[in-house]
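thought: fold this chain, then report.
action: predict
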Amino acid sequence: MPPRLVTSESNVTRIHSNGSAHSAETDARVELARYIGQMVLDLERMSNTANLELLSYFLAMARAEADSIANLPAQAKPERDAQTQAPYHAE
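observation:
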């Protein structure tokens, strides 16, 4: 069953079939965290290619935080970690 919408003055909340509430604001926050995580992954690749170890470390921390906020499933994280080892190629 698709989620039903419950409206309030300030927000729209989706009530899922399992009874949990999920706001549109939360959806936007999660999508933004995913986008930032992907951008940071690209920067992390560039810093790895240039052997900028400390910068790579900080970018990896930022990516881990974005993944945490985005609630990426555990199986997606090793895939992304492997991507950081791929060399960056400027177009």
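thought: worth noting. The radius of gyration is 17 Å.
final: tokens above.
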